[in-house]
Amino acid sequence: MIERREVRYQAAVLREHHVLLIKIFDRADGSEVWIFPGGGREPGESEEACLRRELQEETGLEVAVGPLLFETPVRDDELYSLLKTFRCAIVAGEPQPGTEPELDHDGVASIRDVGWFDLREPTTWGPDVARAKATIPLLLQLGAALGYTH
């Protein structure tokens, strides 16, 4: 079980108008949803170190953490009350499904896939993206922060 943390630090990893998302298996209901990679800070860990660790664990990527793009309050979430989204750039590696160390101790992978989603074309995101209630609003917020209009 993941412990409650007030803030989720998440990465907007960008490549040629696309943002990287991970597909996770929701153990509560058996669904699969697309979300931004990221997670909570460990004690004594900086925001930047948290993001670098989470991206390494979840996607196998080494990233450079850039500026905070936006903060998003979250309601009715069991784990987080605030999402902080940072722009990140790939330094090394190709994204691949990684692990969620707090959950994957039973042999069932939580991270099922990685994918690039075109910020210029929301119509291409597909119905799987809408299953995580926060993902589409976050993608639209990211697009607006980066100057994409829909």
Word description of this protein:
The protein has 150 residues and is of the alpha+beta class. It has helices spanning 47-59, 127-130, 135-145; strands spanning 7-15, 18-25, 32-35, 38-39, 62-73, 82-92, 111-118. Strands 1, 2, 3, 4, 5, 6 and 7 form a 7-stranded mixed β-sheet that branches. The longest helix has 13 residues, at 47-59. The radius of gyration is 14 Å and the shape is globular.
List the helices and strands and how they pair.
Elements: E1 7-15, E2 18-25, E3 32-35, E4 38-39, H1 47-59, E5 62-73, E6 82-92, E7 111-118, H2 127-130, H3 135-145
Parallel strand pairs: 1-6
Antiparallel strand pairs: 1-2, 1-4, 2-3, 2-7, 5-6
Notable characteristics:
single chain, 150 residues, alpha+beta, 3 helices, 19% helix, seven-stranded mixed sheet, globular, 36% strand
Considering DSSP H and I runs of 4 or more, what fraction of the residues is helical? Answer: 10-25%
Uncertain residue ranges: none
Beta-strand residue fraction:
35-45%
* Computed structural class: alpha+beta
Order of helices and strands: EEEEHEEEHH
Indicate the radius of gyration in whole angstroms.
Answer: 14 Å
Helical stretch count?
A: 3
First-residue to last-residue Cα separation: 38 Å
Report mean pLDDT, rounded to a whole number.
Answer: 88
Shape: globular
Count of beta strands: 7
The major β-sheet equals: 7 strands, mixed
Summarize the structure.
This protein has 150 residues and is of the alpha+beta class. It has helices spanning 47-59, 127-130, 135-145, and strands at 7-15, 18-25, 32-35, 38-39, 62-73, 82-92, 111-118. It is built from three helices and seven strands, in the order ββββαβββαα.
